[in-house]
Design a protein that fits this description.
This protein has 1 helix and 37 strands. The protein is an all-beta fold and about 500 residues long. Keywords: Repeat, Signal.
Length: about 500
């Protein structure tokens, strides 16, 4: 969300605050103008953060093309100079972590933002709405991921540190105060070791390299997962989610709920559940993580929307659950579902998923884009304002889409060549096209080219008990120089 990613968001939430859904800013990974020499940047992750001997460890290498399109070829994985194997790079869906709801990573790892800015979510030191991208103060390089909430944003650095800015009425900035921040500040206790971040409406969660989940911000509906559910409780610094001190491989945050994928593919969710968005077969709020019914294994990715949730299975199918007023569950009805159901027409081939307040988009392995749900502003992309209860192919995007990001009521994609196009609601400049005009058809963000990320992975169970320093090496290709990344990993008996 990172919905909220928007993908995937103060004491009491101010009633006068505008809905984050309508004003959410789109976060995209955008590259600066091409330079003479194209470098690359490789980051290695091992899932889960620590493993038992004999169990498979998934090694994931993300290679960023800095100014030269998508990196291609293979990545070699090793430990102590001993080869473990190799994986082939693919750009389709690999850049999801760089896309949120209205900020952009430049080709050198800096951040630019645009859109609604009353509380400083653009990060330029002002409170003026920005219909075109502007540089975020103090973040000129070294950033690998971005996520935006209702009225705030957070960034993850190469060093594994988290910084946030914008509204802090619920402590969502994580600096121990409730003072709004117009420029980025460090999140207390998260100066290293974080591998992923997710922003909800008024809360955030972080995933550490050890596979633990830490959350902060508003805890009024149990969305921090720490066993507390009190409307007046805010956590001004990160706290651990109950039972999630290890074994987590990915996270997401919705409006007022959060979810995680565990080693082995099980899904767990917590927080608000009045529309069944936790998927446990009830509508009872949960202040501690609970298992999603029917998803005990085989979940590859999960994405929380406003009051619904969707998952991609290991078979590349999509299942959704929760509020279905606009057809966002995708089963051809508008009946709310408290357990997962299959999304019509998406039984295979899906490699990435993004969720907005009431709509979703799925990216297939051939680069085709399919969207469904709420469509008041044309955010589904079919050139109409008719809600869609089943996925529709987005005209002009049947091939070549590399990454997707959804705001509350808008959508954006990066396509071949790194072109960025957005459509839907643009009341506060969230499409980044320099106007405040809503768009039924995609409009490019002028002057920007998206940073393209490729990913390679492999499984290994050959690591012995003890501590290891793993390495991923990209040898370079015709457009990029070589780069490598390392990651510490522990194997326990």
């Amino acid at each position: 969300m990172s919905f909220f990613t928007i993908s995937c968001m103060s004491g009491v939430v101010a009633a006068a605050a505008p809905r984050w859904l309508a004003v959410a800013i789109l976060s995209l990974s955008l590259a600066a103008p091409a330079v003479a020499a194209s470098a690359s940047r490789t980051r290695l992750m091992a899932q889960p953060g620590s493993s038992k001997a004999g169990l498979a460890v998934k090694l994931i290498a993300e290679v960023d093309g800095l100014g030269g399109g998508a990196p291609t070829g293979t990545v070699s994985f090793s430990e102590g100079g001993v080869a473990l194997g190799a994986g082939t790079l693919s750009a389709f869906g690999a850049g999801q972590a760089t896309l949120a709801s209205a900020c952009a990573l430049t080709s050198v790892g800096g951040v630019m933002c645009w859109g609604y800015n009353e509380f400083g979510a653009v990060g330029d030191g002002t409170t003026t709405d920005r219909p075109s991208p502007v540089a975020v103060s103090g973040l000129s390089g070294g950033v690998v991921a971005i996520t935006t909430g209702a009225l705030h944003a957070c960034a993850l650095t190469v060093a594994g540190a988290v910084l946030c800015w914008g509204s802090n009425a619920n402590g969502q900035i994580g600096d121990g105060t409730m003072t709004n921040r117009l420029t980025p500040v460090a999140v207390s206790g998260l100066s290293s070791g974080v591998v992923a971040i997710a922003a909800g409406q008024f809360h955030n969660c972080a995933l550490t390299s050890a596979g633990a989940v830490l959350c902060w911000g508003w805890d009024g509906l149990g969305q921090l997962g720490d066993g507390v559910e009190n409307y007046y409780v805010n956590r001004l610094t990160p706290v651990g989610a109950w039972g999630l001190s290890s074994g987590v491989v990915s996270i997401t945050a919705g409006d007022n709920h959060s979810c995680a994928v565990m080693r082995g593919g099980a899904a767990r969710c917590w927080g608000q559940n009045h529309r069944g968005q936790l998927g446990d077969g009830t509508t009872t709020e949960r202040s501690k993580p609970v298992a999603v019914t029917g998803l005990a294994g085989g979940v590859a990715a999960i994405m929380a929307g406003g009051v619904h949730t969707c998952a991609v299975t290991s078979a590349h199918a999509v299942k959704c659950w929760g509020y279905n007023y606009y057809g966002q569950v995708g089963d051809g009805t508008t009946t709310t579902r408290i357990t997962p159901v299959a999304v019509s027409g998406l039984s295979s081939g899906v490699v990435a998923l993004a969720a907005g307040y009431g709509h979703n988009c799925a990216l297939k392995g051939d680069g085709g884009l399919w969207c469904w749900g709420r469509n008041y502003f044309g955010q589904v992309g079919d050139r109409t304002t008719t809600h869609r209860a089943t996925p529709v192919s987005v005209p002009g995007h049947t091939r070549g889409v590399l990454a997707i990001a959804l705001g509350g009521d808008h959508s954006c994609v990066s396509v071949g060549g790194g072109i960025v196009r957005c459509w839907g609601n643009n009341w506060h400049g969230e499409l980044g096209d320099g106007t405040f005009k809503n768009r039924l058809a995609p409009a490019p963000i002028p002057g920007f080219t998206a940073l393209i990320r490729a990913r390679a992975s492999m499984l290994t169970n050959s690591l012995a008990v003890g501590s290891h320093t793993l390495q991923a090496s990209f040898p370079g290709d015709a457009a990029h120089s070589a780069s490598s990344g390392s990651q510490s990993h522990s194997i326990v008996p």
